Amino acid sequence: MKIICIGRNYVAHILELKNEMPSEPVFFMKPWSSLLRNNKPFSIPAWSKDLHHEIELVLRICRNGKNISRETAGEYFREIGLGIDFTARDVQNLLSAKGLPWEKSKAFDQSAVLGTSFLHKDEFRGTEPVEFRLDINGRTVQQGNSGLMVFDFADIIVHISKYVTLKTGDLVYTGTPAGVGPVIPGDHLEGYIGKTRLLNFRVR
To answer: Helix or strand or coil: residue 41?
Structure first.
């Protein structure tokens, strides 16, 4: 199983980090050991002093596929969930400045938080785009919807499958909206799709 993450997929987030606008989806991977489930507490690694939250919609792949067409892309996922791509921003910036890969800042243990359940995509028909948000200590810090994506779900699936075979059970984190920022011990994080709370955990 794979965890595939899309970067730079919301214009406001691209601008807040002063990145270039991509001409095609940007993706990277996290190992399965990055998963943090069941609202277990997240432990900030001792080697980072600037650990950021990035809330994202997550697609769960339901069938194997390679070189998927846009017309059939919707057949490769049935459920939409919520997750957080935790990022050691200080480490990422240091590695990026040296032109080095930045997996250390993204792929560490517990860095891919996953919500407690998935919602069937049929629930969103007629109500798209899919709205989501992250609250920290009762205050909304990130909110977005799928309609603001630079590359939509179909674009993402088509692009990834050109290079990597998608397998049943793979998770695709689809990018984060603006508002990323640091977390500190004691923070209480809650994530919602619409009014449904799928994340509810603490940082230690």
So the answer is: coil
